[in-house]
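Hi support team,

I submitted a single chain yesterday and got back a structure, but I'm not sure I'm reading the token output correctly. Could someone confirm the output below corresponds to the sequence I sent? I've pasted both exactly as they appear in my results page.

Thanks,
R.
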Amino acid sequence: MYGSGVGCAMGSVFSQLSTKSQVTLPKPVRETLGLAPGDTLSYEIHEGYAVLRKATSLDVSHLEALQLTLSEWANADDAAAYDDL
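Hi R., thanks for writing in. Yes, this is the structure output for that exact sequence:
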């Protein structure tokens, strides 16, 4: 359902969060973002709101590389050394 979004050229659509914290993206959102099953979404978190967009292959590659890099610090010695910071 469309509403009148402030500062939004295409208006607003709404969906409801399930008890499992899941949401179905409304068709206008899927169509606008060109989403298909299996696509990855990116959430840009701000204070009080978030921006949802379709993740690019560069976004996904960067995230995967970053996760591998961060895992080198994921051991018990590091946790003991840095948990109180």
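A quick pointer for reading it: Residues 1-7 have pLDDT under 50 and may be disordered. Let us know if anything else looks off.

Best,
Support desk
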